[in-house]
Amino acid sequence: MTRSDVLVLVEAVQQADSALALLQATQALAAACHPDGAACLVEVLGFNNPGAAVAAVDGLISIGESAVDTILANLDGYNYGARAWAVRALAGIGDVRGLEVLEDALGKDIGPSVRRAAARGLGQLRLQSLTPSQRCTTAERCLQALVEGCRDGEWVVRYAVAVGLESLAPALHPDLAAGPEPERRLQEALLRLYRNPAEEAPVVSLRAALALQRLGVSHG
Q1: Sign of torsion over alpha carbons 31, 57, 39, 95
Q2: What is the domain partition of the chain in residue ranges?
Q3: Predicted TM-score (pTM) of this structure
Q4: Which of 9, 35, 58, 84 has a 20 to 30 Å separation from 92 between CA atoms?
């Protein structure tokens, strides 16, 4: 698809005169998966149209790393909905440039669904392109945020934290990390989720147990 083709799709989004037209135009632009459509897709995140926002998030994730700078440059601190959708996009892309936003979202966002997305995203950042030192530092920051997320008041977030911890585990293996300490802290966090006597949602304990099992950690 050429840049001129993408501009036609962008114009269709900008000229949409109904909620349905906006949804359909956004879906078409998202399907193009072209970096030149990223700015328009980010703009859609701020519209009061959840269906179009979902399509825009999917499109940004499909564009991938090329969309990250555009997302970060347009984070709207005054539009909660737009920022929440942007967190979902950054979590899905997994680029380390989104680390600070994901940390902040898991620790402070008022929306459980946003904190849940951030927890999953912190476990799935792509660290392969970093130097060993950068990889250790970034993985440690992800671990710290997830450990603190174990205390979240919403079970859906604690469940996502268990998922995030499991996904993060390979990056904290002693062969990659600065010794066994980070791996031990991760396992202890999962054990706390598994054994928490105050846990109101058994599914959280079950998910933590599954993570421990997959990581080969005894939890009996």
Answers
A1: negative
A2: 1-84, 94-220
A3: 0.92
A4: 9
